[in-house]
Every structure is written in structure tokens, then in C-alpha cells.
Design goal:
Radius of gyration: 18 Å
Strand content: 5-15%
Order of helices and strands: EHEHEHEHEHEHHEHH
CATH architecture: 3-Layer(aba) Sandwich
Structural class: alpha/beta
Number of domains: 1
CATH superfamily: NAD(P)-binding Rossmann-like Domain
Distance between the termini: 49 Å
Number of helices: 9
CATH topology: Rossmann fold
CATH class: Alpha Beta
Shape: globular
Strand order of the largest sheet: 3-2-1-4-5-6-7
Helix content: 40-55%
Length: 274
């Protein structure tokens, strides 16, 4: 899909990967609703684009896991620009360290998974009727592998990948395209959350990502996302080595699990030594 002339919604668009995606979309000729729980952050992204691309983006402060607010975003896009062509379900949270508690799980499930499902419920029927639409899910390499440190993050990102797969299988022949973004380390506040948690397992969680491969900038990832959308490619891997890791996991699950336990032990030892 060529994004020029299309209308998009980007959640978690107030910075990080979402902000970079919104920026790249506008520069490629799309019109964008930038949504974020932090309304000021979303406004800052739009304000940075306004001098060069006046009127091409609008900012909305919204809890994008709430069905009513998602519906309002869709109406805002239709009012400002026209029907939604692309939806980037990008907002995400890290979740609690370890097993977490019910509140942690509730929030993480809502933002990392249910927000995608609720948006799809509202958008897919209209896309099927029109014969086209594009849903881009931001998951994580953790959704293909796992995340040391946070059960909730790992499980919800696996679920996000699974939901994106299901959308593609179920509606791909109806003209709906789906992509799933699965990066490792990207320099965002989310990446450093465990590092600053004061918890040994949390510190290990951050180091598991930063030591596994290069830490990319959000701009680098945003550029790769738009290239993948242009190619209508399902799996977006900013870190190509993730595919090799995923293959090794599938080839010998028990060996992979043993290796991850060993890796975690080394990370915990290092974090505990500080």
C-alpha cells in the first residue's frame, strides 16, 4: 500500500516508535491522527510537523484501550480527513516485574492486546465492505521469543502476534492487509523501564534486550515500518537476527529453554553485583 493520500491513526503516537511512525507517514503524504494517553506529547509531535506540513496531522489525548475512545478517534479521523485507511496499534506498556499482580495484568492485557481487538472490531467490518484496509500491530521480539523479567509483557506480546496472524488469515482475502512489528531494543522510555526499577529482575529484563543486539532509534524503526507497509509484508523485523533466534527456538524447544535459563542466570548475576 502506498501511504500517500491515505488517512491513518497512530496510537502511542506521542513519542518513541509511534511518534516516528506518525512523522514518517506525514512526510510520505499521509494524513494522521496522533493519539496518546499523554495529550501534550501527542500535541508536541503534531506541532513539530505543522510548519512543514500544515494541517496534515491532529493530536488527540485518549486512552486507546477504551472502546469509546477508539470510536471517537475513528470519528475524528473521518471528520478531519476521511475514512481510516491504516490503523497503527502501537501503544504499549511493560507490565509488572515477575508474575505481577491482577492490576498489572489487567492494564497490560488491555493496552497490549485488548486495544488491538477493540480497534479491529470497529474497523474491520467497514474495511471488508470497502475491500481494503491496513492494520499494523506493534508487538515485540518478545512475542516471538520471550521477555526475561515480565510475564505479562511476554504473554501479551505473544497474544498480539497471534491476533495479527488471525486477522491476516481471516481477512487477507477480503483486502485487509496486516503487519506485525517485532523489534528487539529500541531507544524508548519503555526499554529503560526495568533498568530504573530498582529490581534485579527488572534490570535483567532491560539487559536481556540491550545485550541481545543493536539498540535502534525510533526513527530507524519508523522508516522500516513504512517500507514494510509499502511491501505489504506481515512480519516486520528491524533486527533481522530475531528470525534466526525464532527458528532455533522452533527447531529444539528444550534446548532453547535451557539456553534462556542460562542467559537469565548470567543477567541476574550481573545485575545483582551492582
Amino acid at each position: 500500500m502506498q501511504v500517500a493520500g491515505k488517512n491513518a491513526i497512530v496510537t502511542g503516537g506521542g513519542g518513541g516508535i509511534g511518534g516516528a511512525i506518525a512523522d514518517r507517514l506525514v512526510r510520505a503524504g499521509a494524513r494522521v491522527v496522533v493519539a496518546d494517553l499523554n495529550a501534550d506529547a501527542a500535541a508536541a509531535v503534531v506541532a513539530a510537523l505543522e510548519p512543514e506540513f500544515p494541517g496534515a496531522a491532529v493530536a488527540v489525548g485518549a486512552d486507546v484501550a477504551d472502546t469509546d475512545r477508539i470510536a471517537e478517534l475513528i470519528v475524528r479521523c473521518e471528520t478531519e480527513f476521511g475514512p481510516v485507511d491504516l490503523y497503527f496499534a502501537n501503544a504499549g506498556v511493560m507490565g509488572g516485574i515477575g508474575l505481577g499482580d491482577d492490576k498489572d495484568w489487567g492494564v497490560t492485557l488491555d493496552v497490549n492486546l485488548n486495544a488491538h481487538i477493540r480497534a479491529a472490531r470497529l474497523l474491520v467490518p467497514g474495511w471488508v465492505e470497502r475491500g481494503e484496509g491496513y492494520f499494523v500491530s506493534t508487538a515485540s521480539a518478545a512475542g516471538l521469543l520471550t521477555q526475561i523479567g515480565s510475564a505479562a509483557y511476554s504473554v501479551t506480546k505473544h497474544a498480539a502476534v497471534g491476533f495479527a496472524e488471525w486477522l491476516s488469515v481471516t481477512y487477507g482475502d477480503a483486502g485487509i492487509r496486516v503487519s506485525c512489528l517485532c523489534p528487539m531494543g529500541v531507544e524508548t522510555a519503555l526499554l529503560r523501564a526495568g533498568e530504573h526499577s530498582g529490581d534485579t529482575l527488572g534490570m535483567a529484563a532491560t539487559r536481556a534486550v540491550t545485550s541481545a543486539g543493536a539498540v535502534l532509534t525510533p526513527d530507524e524503526v519508523g522508516e522500516l515500518v513504512l517500507a514494510a507497509v509499502d511491501d505489504e509484508r506481515f512480519l516486520i523485523l528491524p533486527h533481522p537476527e530475531v528470525l534466526d533466534m525464532y527458528r532455533r527456538k522452533g527447531a529444539d524447544y528444550d534446548r532453547w529453554l535451557a539456553g534462556m535459563r542460562h542467559y537469565q542466570a548470567r543477567l541476574l548475576e550481573s545485575a545483582g553485583g551492582e
